[in-house]
Amino acid sequence: MEQPVAQKEETMIDARDEVMPSISQPHRRRRPTSVAAGRHLKNGNGAAPKSLGVQRVFSDAKVDPFAQLEWERRVAEITDDAGKVIFRQENVEVPKSWSVLATKVVVSKYFYGEQNTPEREVSVRQLIHRISRTIADWGVKDGYFSKADGEVYYDELTWLCLNQYGAFNSPVWFNVGLYHQYGIGKDSGRGNWFYQRKTHEAERAATQYEYPQCSACFIQSVDDNMESIMRLAHSEAMLFKFGSGTGTDLSPIRSSKEKLSGGGRPSGPLSFLKVYDQVANVVKSGGKTRRAAKMNTLRDWHGDIEEFIDAKQKEEKKAWALIE
Fold first, then answer.
1. Is CATH 3.40.1000 correct for 217-323?
2. CA 92, CA 265: separation in Å to the nearest integer?
């Protein structure tokens, strides 16, 4: 297969609701009732549900998935249009069946660690193992699989990734397994919010990778006040840091033609969009080289739409005048 690994992102997560439960939303504190709670749920008879059976379909029980492929050492190099080298890592181990493009994408974007240091990943084996091993271990720990089925799951997931029948989104490649396989982030600052099964509430993780951010995109909201506007910039920066994209409808922010209660005129959503755009520009996605993914919308009834269109038309007229 000639397509590079891990290019397709997953469905957006709508983060417009509050993360923490509030008095007006008591249903957020209820005990979960789906199989997602794994071993912590009970069926109608009060007994714990049976774990999922995992059938071996692709992998071979007698052969390690990594041993089923032929491997080789390559140089992963990316150059700009002028031929200047902007990324290069030598002696990386990849499956021989992988294309050059797949090699460049995976090594430059998803290998963990600073180059020329012992922590740097040097093989696709390491990358896929840290993710497959971590997810399989989670499944066993949370009661989805028995230990034996967890090993089958690990083999199957590893085989699918190695043979490019499936690929995760970028945040999974960036984040999953760093804490659990390498011990990364144990001394870091606090991480994202997660669901605490013991208390049935959302809590802030003590570290940044123990509960890794795995969703590709988030939809957030903003209110027409400075606190909300700047809080959005903060939350976007943190989402970008761990490799995800974010989008927001800025229509709730009043137009520059309206008035402020304290006097004067507001800046309007387009002015604040410059701030959000710069946050996306300077906070690299997942700490890597790619600019963060950013989406904003403005409803056609918003007061600043007409002004925006007029400004664009003037720019176009000016550009055509220079051409002529």
1. no
2. 57
pLDDT of amino acid 40: 45
User: Has this prediction a pTM greater than 0.85?
Assistant: no
Distances (CA, A) of 34 to 38, 101, 110, 197, 199: 8, 41, 33, 13, 17
Using alpha carbons, select from 6, 25, 29 the residue that is nearest to residue 16. 25
pLDDT at 8 over 50: no
Q: How far apart are CA 218 and CA 316, in angstroms?
A: 33
| 3-state secondary structure at position 235 | helix
Question: For the CA atoms of 25, 219, 195, 35, what is the dihedral angle to 10 degrees?
Answer: 90
Dist. CA 324–CA 310, nearest whole Å = 21
CA distances from 8 to 3, 158, 172 (A): 11, 18, 12
Burial class (CB in 10 A: 0-12, 13-18, 19+), 217: buried
- 17 or 317: which leads in pLDDT: 317
**Cα torsion for 110, 115, 120, 126, to the nearest 10°?**
40
pLDDT digits (tens, 9 = 90+) for 19-70: 333 333 333 333 333 333 444 445 555 555 677 889 999 999 999 999 999 9
In DSSP notation, 102-139 reads HHHHHHHHH--S-TTSTTS--BHHHHHHHHHHHHHHHH
Q: Give the start-to-end residue ranges of the domains of the chain.
A: 38-189, 217-323
